[in-house]
Write a structure and sequence with these properties.
This protein is mostly helical and 198 residues long. It is built from 10 helices and no strands. Helix 2 runs antiparallel to helix 10 and helix 3 packs across helix 6.
Length: 198
């Protein structure tokens, strides 16, 4: 049953990535980064595994975003960005009524993975510990991976620039404890990155 849930979670996550012309390896890396962050910040094996199984659903709401916005090669204008931001709430809406604990966690992650520690994220503008730990974990895992990957709107960043951004956004965008865990265990995260290449 657990293996079926893992597979379904990856398939759904990869379907969204394919639609946005990204690689399915993104959801696998985010899942494994999220698990490592969860374990290192003291969550139980059970909770860490639940986050790992749920995190591939973080962008599920993108299935409802029009192609011309989702795959735009340049910067979004204000109207397009407002539509793009809706994916967080749309993913939550799709998953929120499930009685399955993986999909329930997926709803939280979809809703909160663009919230910021300082309250300047979206869609709710919640801050600090008011953001569920799974949302805070997936937010960092997602940004760490997305910056290091080619996207339709940007080239992959060099690792040094990603590290600098995480240092600068510690306590702003990211939970400072989680940012420290990633920075202090960078080699373990790079092993995951290299295990799931694009």
């Amino acid at each position: 049953m657990r293996e079926s849930q893992r597979e379904l979670s990856y398939i759904l996550g990869e379907a969204v990535e394919k639609r946005s012309k990204e690689t399915g390896s993104h959801v696998k890396r985010v899942a494994n980064y999220s698990y490592l962050l969860a374990i290192k910040c003291g969550l139980s094996e059970y909770e860490a595994e639940k986050i790992k199984l749920s995190s591939p659903l973080h962008d599920l709401g993108k299935i409802a975003i029009p192609d011309h916005i989702l795959n735009k090669p340049g910067k979004h204008d204000a109207d397009e960005w407002a539509i793009m931001q809706q994916h967080a709430y749309l993913g939550y809406q799709i998953l929120q009524h499930s009685t399955n604990e993986i999909l329930q966690m997926g709803a939280i992650i979809a809703h909160q993975h663009h919230e910021k520690w300082n309250g300047k994220g979206y869609p709710q503008g919640v801050s600090g510990h008011n953001i569920h730990i799974a949302g805070r974990i997936t937010a960092l895992a997602d940004v760490f991976d997305a910056l290091g990957s080619d996207r339709c709107y940007k080239k992959a960043w060099p690792l040094e620039e990603i590290i600098e951004l995480i240092r600068n956004e510690r306590g702003q965008h990211f939970d400072p404890t989680l940012a420290d865990i990633l920075l202090n265990n960078l080699d373990a995260f790079l092993v995951i990155r290299d295990a799931y290449p694009d």
